Recover the amino acids of this structure.
């Protein structure tokens, strides 16, 4: 079992920045792959970014490349999502997700991840 708790969401103006954190417990953190997803009202949950167990590999959806950065601190059992140059259309609930064996080619699919946090709201005003 893995428990995930997100934090760091809030209200920000367009062009601003936020850093989301996701604290994990219940399993050796360095043995799990991590991802961030988001879900806007009335839309499906969509992939944002993923990071491998060691942090050596990262992957982003095209729309956030160059603006978002995923990272992890295995000593602190925490994964981060630094979001810069935020856009109003990125308003959503952001979720972190985890699994001990994500198929890397399928890392963008929600069903690759067995564990999910409760989400944190990010609102970007225009």
């Amino acid at each position: 079992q893995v428990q995930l708790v997100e934090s760091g969401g809030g209200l920000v103006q367009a062009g601003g920045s936020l850093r989301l954190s996701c604290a994990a417990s219940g399993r050796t953190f360095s043995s799990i792959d991590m991802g961030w997803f988001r879900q806007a009202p009335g839309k499906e949950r969509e992939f944002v970014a993923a990071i491998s167990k060691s942090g050596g590999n990262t992957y982003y959806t095209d729309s956030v490349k160059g603006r978002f950065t995923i990272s992890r601190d295995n000593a602190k059992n925490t994964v981060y999502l630094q979001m810069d140059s935020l856009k109003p259309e990125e308003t959503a609930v952001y979720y972190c997700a985890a699994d001990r064996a994500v198929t890397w080619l399928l890392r963008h699919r929600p069903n690759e991840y067995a564990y999910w946090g409760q989400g944190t709201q990010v609102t970007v005003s225009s």
User: Anything to note?
Assistant: The chain has a mean pLDDT of 95.
